[in-house]
Design goal:
This protein is of the alpha/beta class. It has a single domain (3-219), classed as Rossmann fold, CATH 3.40.50. It is built from 8 helices and 5 strands, in the order βαβαβααβααβαα. The protein has helices at 13-24, 42-53, 87-90, 102-117, 139-152, 154-158, 174-183, 208-219, and strands spanning 3-8, 27-35, 58-63, 121-123, 164-166. Strands 3-2-1-4-5 form a 5-stranded parallel β-sheet, with helices on both faces. The mean pLDDT is 93.
Amino acid sequence: MTKKAVLLLSGGLDSTTTLAMAKSQGFEVYAMSFVYGQRHSHEIEASRKIAQKYGAKEHRVVTIDLGAFGGSALTEEGLAVPKDRSDAQMGTGIPITYVPARNTIFLSYALAWAEVLGAYDIFIGVNALDYSGYPDCRPEFIGAFESMANLATAYGVAGGKRIMIHTPLIDLTKAQIIRTGLSLEVDYGDTTSCYDPTPEGKACGHCDACQLRLKGFRENAMPDPVGYA
């Protein structure tokens, strides 16, 4: 019997690697992306291409408006995306690019779809090593959400199986994630990670996401295949 899984797909390096890993484990993947009020649409364009290329059974793009609340440089025009931060700076505190409650909301939507599909597996490409201080990328958060999911859903209570939140990248460095994806024939030229891309979609090369991504490729002694401004 085919195993169904809902996977959160941002169009980025991590979620694309997670998609390839889920497929390699035999899951029939239902991908979910969000238009959530982010300041650019490049990641949605990338996610559509990636879902099709890597064989998602279905891909849904859900529109919500986290920009209504603000509080993040990813949703508010008036907040600047930090650039050229050192490793020490990136490893301290919660950056202004954190979107309040984003992963909690995204996982809740994924859980709702999983319940309808009869899927007991949800994949998310969070990472606790190169995670730039986001509280909703930590193992403690994932464990708490998984516990909640098994208490809050009809099929979690009555279905006889546990809902599992899979985080296959949680303990990997960016370099290890890239190596894993390359072994699964992921083309990282399809992905986008930048917090502040140009209107044409080129990466800035200076935000936290770009710096972590570039470091990962350097540690693999290879160039990043995406375009930089």
